[in-house]
Every structure is written in structure tokens, then in C-alpha cells.
Amino acid sequence: MIMTRNPQPTPKVVLQVQNASIFYGSFRAVRDVTMDIYANEVTALIGPSGCGKSTLLRCFNRMNDLVPGARVEGKITYHGKDLYARDVDPVEVRRRIGMVFQKPNPFPKSIYDNVVFGARVNKYKGDFDELLETSLRQAALWDEVKDKLQESGLSLSGGQQQRLCIARAIATKPDVILMDEPCSALDPISTLKIEELIHELKQNYTIVIVTHNMQQATRVSDRTAFFNAEATEQGNRVGYLVEYDHTSVIFNNPKQKATMDYVSGRFG
Amino acid sequence: MAATSTPPESPEVAMIRVRRNLRYYLDQGFYYLTMAFALAIAITLVWIVIQIGLTAIPAITQFGLGFLTSTTWDPVQNIYGILPQIYGTLVSAIIALVVAVPLGLGIAIFLSEDFLPTYVTTPIAFAIELLAAIPSVVIGLWGIFILIPFLRPFYTFVHRYLGWIPLFGTEPRGNSLLTLGLVLAFMILPLITSISRQTLVSLPPYLRQGAMALGATRWETILRVLIPAGFSGIVGSIMLALGRAMGETMAAAMLVGNSNRINISLLEPGSTIASLIASQFGEAGRDQVAALLYAGLVLMILSLIVNILAEIIIKKFQNVER
Ligand SMILES: Nc1ncnc2c1ncn2[C@@H]1O[C@H](COP(=O)(O)OP(=O)(O)OP(=O)(O)O)[C@@H](O)[C@H]1O
Ligand SMILES: [Mg+2]
Questions:
Q1: pLDDT of A122-158, one tens digit each?
Q2: CATH number of B61-321
Q3: Which of B72, B95, B270, B279 is deepest in the core (most CB within 10 A)?
Q4: pTM given for the model
Q5: What is the ipTM of this complex?
Q6: What letters, b where the CB count within 10 A reaches 16 and e where it falls short, cover A124-133?
Q7: CB–CB of B215 and A103 under 8 A?
């Protein structure tokens, strides 16, 4: 599929990574990443396993704070505000920058409670039923669950659970949605549904998606960042950004040979 | 249907047939051995109930269900009833739960979260589990010689300022239902703490991550996701603790005061079923033994009810868990 070029000449930058290195203890997992993520676009992060895609993604909403010893050097800004500044409340950050995980992880609660969870903790003032319906509709799940909202979220199939998790993330009314391999546990039909959903969501949200599926990256994303890992003198591997451009460029005529090899399946 | 011809069995296939070799017999032997153990436990339980029931028959036929509602315990005329003991058993157990559940759950949360590094929490968790290993007679002695004198000013204070509440309406004595309840709380604390902690620690990490990623604070995550997800384990620990508190004998006999009265004031001495049996069994005559065993039967049934309730609650909440 051909990517749709954004009508504005320069879209707004939502997340800006400036020379960021990410550490787990003394181990540097990712080095010197610099990239901008634009509003109302889908940005795909691709690259071989262990190159730090999830690590970088988790830094965007400070989920890496949950990992003891994880830290960021350099700067990551959100609408110009340094995410790692002292006066930033990570809880507030996560309310604006939602996340969908690789493995569907609904809470052991009813479908209803799963979706409105974020609204509840955010002290949402509006109508919960309405929020529930719009979120589930946006996640293309409403028709399948509207008659069993009180059943456990765990009673759904894997694909439905993942869409439930997307609905749950949308219901928090975030600005950015991060997705870490959201389709890797799903069948082709569910995958397609979620890809369509991502297309829909782009109107209202900024999306960053990690994927191992090249076709998926070409289908859903506007821009693609290719990461790779290289061995260091200490014997461990550090991830770095090889190339970042419009998806069509990355997949059709990338500047780097490594990118070409990877996207054409001639890697390693 | 398409006709299919069965191909001749090849020699390799013969390998998958059961061979009655040593491994087979060991396997079978192990199966029957474990089954025998399991059955032995069930049979022992039934046997105990039958034996107690048989010995208690004279008292059961004589007093019937009136045994549960009568407050007389008169070994001279051989008239027995255990209402004060049932009351004391339940009240002391409830006091114990009221104190130990919030405390135990709080400790469990504290130890399962990363407030402190694991080299601090692990020894603390271990020490709490060691509390469970203290013999109850030692705890009873500790209660008499250390806890009661220590609590006396506190009791006096409570009576002076909260005496208008009937629960604290009498002059404090050392031995009382409240003292027993507090000691029982101490004894069941390790149970609640260690089981609840295990439950919380073993919850899958993606639950916490999911909640945090939706902008929940640490406490919202604990209260809205982790505790509900671990609810069955927590309730299980509480029910187990309740059973233990109701059945505790030695500490009860030493601390409750063994007075055969129902008093609304928790500062008054009372009696529990277990303490009654323990304190009277030594010099009991035939009829009295029957009455005591009847009381024991009542206690067993009470514990059984608690356990069944626990099972029901756990089942009810398990369906939302993985
Ligand atoms: N919680 C953690 N603690 C310590 N090291 C970690 C942690 N998570 C990831 N790492 C390390 O960081 C590096 C990058 O891991 P990351 O999970 O970001 O890779 P990835 O690109 O997402 O790989 P995959 O495609 O397999 O998901 C790896 O070397 C990994 O061992
Ligand atoms: Mg990953």
C-alpha cells in the first residue's frame, strides 16, 4: 500500500528524542537515538530482536520507571516538555500517553470495569456508559460484547482481549498510544481488524507501534524507524537507530544497506 | 466413506504398547500408595467425628439443640449448655480478625511492593512466619506476664473515656475476651500476612503494568487491581485464620478467664468452647465428658461452616482469575 502523505507540509512534533541513551543499571541497551514523532501519524519501530524497540517505547510513557535501575540519558520531550524533568509526574504522563502491550492483559474484572478503569482512576466526570460504548465501538469490539458487558474480560478470545485493551487505552482519552507488537499473539483476521483500527485511530491520536511484521509496518505506518544492534567492547549488544524516514522510503529505497537487507529479508 | 485398508502394524509401532516392566509397576504402586494416604486422611476425619459423636450421644439425646442456647454449666446437677462459650468463641475470633486483617494485609502489601529492597523484606517476611512457630502455651504465658500488665493502663484509659460504649462498660480485668482477642490476633497475623503476601507476589506482573500504563497511581493499582485479583487468596488466608482463632485452646484457657457468663463488655472475662473443654476435661465425670464432647462437636461444625463459606467465596471470585 502507498502511504498517504500528510496534507500539512510540516506536521506537529509530539515526541522528540534527542540523543537519548537508555540504561538498565550499567548496561546501555540503546544509544544515541534522535528522532521526532509527528502528530496524527503512525510511526513504526522495526528491527531485530533485542535492539531496544520496547525499551525506547517504554521510555515514552515512563513505564521504564517500573524497572529498577532503568534510566535515560539525553532528552525525550513531549510537546516540548522534558518527560524526565524533575517536576514531571509519571502518572500524569501515562494518562496522556497510553500503552497496549504485546500480550493482551485485561484485568480480571468485567468487560465494563476494564474499559472504564482508566476513567475511574482519572476521576472522569462524564457519562461512563457513553464512554464505554464509544471506546468499544472505536476498538471495533462493541458488537461482539455489547450483550455481555458484565462478563469477565478474560472470557474473551485473545484477539478480542487485545481489542479490549485498546478500548481500555482509548477510554483514558490519551493523546498518544504506544503499541508493543499488539498483533503478535493474534490470528490474521484479528490482526487485520486491529490494523484497520489503527488506521481509524490515526485521525485522533498519535500512534507509535513496534512490529516484527514488515507487511504490517508498510500497511499501517506513515514513518518507519529501523533499529539495529551491534556488539560493544564489553561483549554485550547495544541498539541504535539506523534509519528513520517515510515508510515508503525505508521499504523502497533506503539510504543504508543494513536497512535494505533487513526489510528485504536478507538480514543476518 | 472411502474404504481404507489398515496397513500392517510395523515393528516400531509395537514399541508404544504398554510394557509391564519395573517402571510400570513402580508407577502403579505409587498411584495406589498415594491413594491410600489420601483415603486414610478422609477416613481418619470421619472416624474422629463418629467417635466423638458416639461418646457425646448421652448429652445429645438429653439436651438436644437446647444445648446451644442454654447458659447453664452445672457439673453438680449435670445440666449443660454452651451459649456463653459459643458467644466467647465468636467474639474473641472476631476481635482477632478486626485487628489482624488490616494489619496483616497492610504488612503483606508493604512486603510485596518494592518499598524496601528484597534483602530487607525477605528477613522480615521470614521473621513473621517464624511467629507462627511459637508454641501457644508460650504465647499464653507471655500474655499473662507481659501483655496483660502492659495493656492495663490502656484498658483503664479505654474504660474511662469510652466507658459509655457498652463494649467497654465495665472495670477492666486482666483476663478478658478482649485480651484473648488481641493475643489471637497476634497468633493469626503470620497466617494472614504470609498467605496474602504470597498471593500478591505471585500475581502476574502484567496486571500492575496494565494498571500503571492507564495512569493509575501505585495505590490505585494495589487497591483496584492487585487486591481484587488476589481476593480469593486473601479471603482464604482470613478464613484459615478464623478457623485457627476459633480452635485455639491453650492461649484461650490461659487468658480468657473461664467465666461462664455472657457479658456485653469485652473487658470482662468469658469463655470459649476450646477453653471450656481444656479446663474441664481433667476432672470431668461421665456425663460431663459427654457434654464436653458435644461442645467439641459444635466447635467442629462451626469450623466446618467457616471453611465451607471460605470455599464458596473463593470459588465465587476465582472465575475472574486466571
Ligand atoms: N527489564 C529489563 N532489565 C534489564 N535489561 C533489559 C530489560 N528489558 C530489556 N532489557 C535489555 O535491553 C535490550 C533491549 O531489549 P528490548 O526488550 O527493548 O528489545 P526489543 O527490541 O523490544 O526486542 P524484541 O523484538 O525481542 O521484543 C536487551 O538486551 C534486553 O536484554
Ligand atoms: Mg520488544
A1: 888 888 899 999 999 888 889 999 999 999 899 898 8
A2: 1.10.3720.10
A3: B270
A4: 0.81
A5: 0.85
A6: eeeeeeebbe
A7: no
